[in-house]
Amino acid sequence: CAFLAPRHCQTGDELVYPYSIISSAAMITYFLILSDLSLLSTSISAYALVCCRVASELFLFLVGLTFCALTFACAIGALEQGNEDFLGIPKSGLQLVKMTLGMFSG
Hints:
The protein is an all-alpha fold. The protein is built from 4 helices and no strands.
């Protein structure tokens, strides 16, 4: 029965975090090795190449979005206004990102 034995023992509790780090590294290594198999097929190789290019462009978009949202959030924070959604830099930055993604409802 599951209720007879404890789920974690006292000596094993201190090993949970290092074990999680090592298992994460193993998973990353596994998927990196798996990505080398994409060279066997031309279509899979082209797909992997396109994914890498799109991922880099997506990263650049997110960096630009963060910079613009932070810039305008600081400017809105300096304004004298009483809108609840834009009180402070973090809240205004979040609302600006929501506006960009079409999720703003205020």
